[in-house]
Description:
The structure holds two protein chains of two kinds.
Chain A: E1 5-12, H1 19-27, E2 34-38, E3 44-49, H2 58-73, E4 82-86, H3 92-96, H4 104-114, E5 121-124, H5 130-144, E6 149-156, H6 160-168, E7 189-190, E8 192-199, E9 206-215, H7 225-239, E10 248-250, H8 257-270, E11 277-278, H9 281-284, H10 291-305, E12 333-340, E13 344-352
Parallel strand pairs in A: 3-7, 4-5, 4-6, 10-11, 10-12
Antiparallel strand pairs in A: 1-8, 2-3, 6-8, 9-13, 12-13
Chain B: E1 2-12, H1 19-27, H2 36-52, E2 62-67, H3 72-81, H4 89-94, H5 97-107, E3 114-118, H6 122-132, E4 138-144, E5 150-158, E6 167-168, E7 179-185, E8 188-193
Parallel strand pairs in B: 2-3, 2-4
Antiparallel strand pairs in B: 1-5, 1-7, 4-5, 6-8, 7-8
Amino acid sequence: MKPVYLAGRGLACALGLSVSDARAALQRGEQHTRCHVLPGASGGNFPYHTIPYQHNDSHERARILLQRVTDEAGAQHARDGVLLIATSSYDIGAETRGAIKSDYGTYTDKIAAWLDWRGPVYLLNTACTSSLNALLAAHALLQADDLSEALVLGIELDNRLTLGGFAALQLLTQGDSKPFGAQRDGLVLGEAVAALRLSTTTPADWQIAGGANVVDGSQPTGASATAVAEMYHRALSASGLTAAQIDLIKVQAAGSPGNDAVEAQGLRDAFTTMPPLVSLKAAIGHTMGASGAAEIALLSVTLEHGGWPLYRDAADPTLGVELAAQPPASVKNFMATILGFGGSHATVVVQRA
Amino acid sequence: MNTFAITGRCIASPPPADWREQLTRMLGAKPRRIGTWAELGLYGALTCMADAGEAGLPPEAQIWLGSRRGTYTATDLALAQLRDDLPMPLTFLQTQPSQFLAMLAARLESRGHACFLADAQPQALLRLAAAQAGAGGLLLGWVDEMNGGSSNWLRLRHAEAAAHEFVAASAEGLLHPHVSHLHLDSTGLRIRHAD
């Protein structure tokens, strides 16, 4: 098995326009949300974690953010490799503003041109698990093919359709996100652009050890505890590790009353001794298809340079699990989990190289 | 990289005139409020599985789906609803291709990996799927609503076959009814015709 290194990372999220800015803001305990007003009986004022970069042209804003984030990840070393774009919303933000009318092919071609990409390009959508599944696909391709470089690019930018859809499904809170919290009452969404550069030839501090995606169609809009447990078992098997070797799990824990409880049950079923748990949702929001890549970028840098999310709300004692108030003393293996629409349960094992 | 036997197929470009009736018979009831794209997908996938003689997918089988326009019809509808109000919940869900994957997985009693690739040509979809394929093989589909609709599916199982029996082929060759095996490696796609 060839090692697949996490050779570069880039991030723009509500905490900042680079991985280091976001880490520093996390360490300072910052949270940045703006309010979006939605119409209708289920509408209202909804907080939203917005990337602190404004531009009056949403198309240009997307281009600048993507180029900035991919540059930070070292995309210039990977342009002959494979590019996996992960998103659940494509260009819909520009479409809702009447700026464009595109299709998948146009969108893919546009991003490839922005990045001056020469290798194959894939556009992948499994809703909120998109960038974790792109990471698993990139890992498999690098293991199987002659390719040595891949870039996973998670993109979710501000748009009324996604926010409106989540509001229509009554999944959002008008307050704060409270992961695994006693008073949790819904999600806060956010936008992010995140890039993870994978390489088999450029050694780095972290490598991708494996992972799993379990699709359980019995719960098309929520998680299933059985599927959560099965996902962890399969990911451990795929990465050749035991549960006792996992030092930290980045959970979904988006603050949903039902889904957080289901996730907690699945964790208890999978782990006899629970590893420390961390959630980044209160800090950057749920960034949907970009969340897997965004949260791996942010978590890996905090494990290297310090910082930890602040949980302001009391934990829910009925869940039987709680988030760690401090980072573990040392982390060799961590799992990054996202649970999403379409019954998709995905986790990736990241390991110190 | 990988050799597969094609154990089932549905080539419906366009689907037959009575495809909705056939789908209703396969499901045992008329599908409700899932949208035409998902209905077309279910029709092709279930027809392909019936052709393979399988009622469900085994553990470790994976579902991979490609489309040029995917859920654009539902997305246009949701955007229209959004002008004055929130989108209807079911309309919003129909904009997400993963909802179809969940439906299909439930129907086939599958708990494996499932993935949607937008704008993926057959060879690109196959390349990515083959890299991750487990012991249960693959169910691969390409579904679109435009131009009368299309729902093309292949059920692939890992197979052993001598390399010299294969000939180079274009991506379109994958869907030819006389192709029995395919092989994918760093040189591209090769196919073998049925004896």
